[in-house]
Amino acid sequence: VGPPPPPQPRAEGRPVVLPDGSYASQMAVEDGGAAEPGVPRLRGLLLGGDFFLATVVATALAKLALRSRAHLPPVAANMIGANVMLLLTGLLQLGKAGQSAQSIDADSQERISAYLQLLSNPCADVQQLLLVHCRQGFSAMLSEQRAAEAADKPAADAVPEVARQADDLINVRQLRGRAVETATLDLDDDDDIALGVATGAFPSELDFSARLKRVTQLTGLSDPVYAEAYVLVHSYDIMLDVLVINQTTAPMHNLCLELATVGDLKLCERPQSYTLQPGENKHIKANIKVSSTETGIVFGSIVYDAQGTSSSPPVPVVSTSGMAPPPERVCVVLHDIHIDIMDYIAPASCTDLAFRAMWAEFEWENKVAVNTDITDVKEFLKHVISSTNMRGLTPEAALDGDSGFLAANLYAKSIFGEDALVNVSVERRADGKLCGYIRIRSKTQGIALSLGDKITLKQKGPSSN
């Protein structure tokens, strides 16, 4: 009777959903036994070519050999150190002899060779470096990761804020029509904005200086009609509050604000006609829907009917047929309104593994050359983070010290769920100026190009703001 036959692989299947929505069967073969019975798991992985694991083994053995000197006699400690050096030499020979599935890489070879040199001369500084400083650095890294995770997680005892009650009135501006647009509803709009400020929907809107930064002048002071727009961005909506003033001495009939958009912007309402008496002003509101993170442009014109010229009072003119001539249609072209991409981007965090996976996956890249008046690499990084409204993923401990070069990763997420990845690599040259590149990657082209234009505009320094 011979030995029992080895266990045969067992196939198991289960239904899966394909990307196109269809179903398919996925087969998985489960091997009941190891390829080589009797081979330890660690040895099998090392023979399989996992030399990153070999460097971890070398690090653990080197630290154990150095730590044994504080607990064992010198002769026994030296014997342990010699055995560890023999094992490390065997790992190097395994990577070079070709017995494993792949040869050892240069990084792993250099790391194991460094431990061989440290064990051959185990002085007090070496023990302090490996046993104390390395542990402190690892503890600091873990503390930073836990602090970042705690900052991202909401507090367990936090009471959620109620932005709207269940019985609150839903105010839809597009469904009002012309007849119901009264002063009472204008007051309701102001109350709606005030409620948004109180609940945090429109932060910093009570600050008068912040409101002035969002005002865009659309026409000149010498134009017959003066117009300026207050732009308020909230999530997926952009509200334009356009102030129109009749600067002539004649009434303007059938005044209409005609707008158009460039980019992923969509007007939600049709223009309406108004009549402005001399010196009268009117607030015209328009809603725009945003569908992606892309720098959009809003342009348009104001058209109205006027008798004669707009700078002098109308003169009654009667034609030969006895009827007044038709009014003149006047068109005033408005200045473009550029929608800032920073209104859609918020700082976010992710793990280094997720950042590297997204960096390898995203196909759109925008490479911006560094051209700035800032001479300090850390100050330049802080300026880029503040200008792009992103979060630095590189820990502060990795940026400590005085160095002439810097490399850091930044990450942000848009309100549409789009990821924005930025890598900043700068170096200070001998003449004191900074050089390098800022690389931006994203899944969509719009956010990569828009963020690159923003960085190019803002990277000069604080004076460019």
TrEMBL record:
GO cellular component: COPI vesicle coat; Golgi membrane
A single GO BP: intra-Golgi vesicle-mediated transport
Transmembrane residue ranges: none
Domain Coatomer beta subunit appendage platform: start-end pairs: 328-455
Domain Coatomer beta subunit C-terminal: 166-305
Membrane topology classification: Peripheral membrane protein
Keywords: Cytoplasm, Cytoplasmic vesicle, ER-Golgi transport, Golgi apparatus, Membrane, Protein transport, Repeat, Transport
Localization (cell): Cytoplasmic vesicle, COPI-coated vesicle membrane; Golgi apparatus membrane
Protein name in UniProt: Coatomer subunit beta
Species in which this protein is naturally found: Coccolithus braarudii
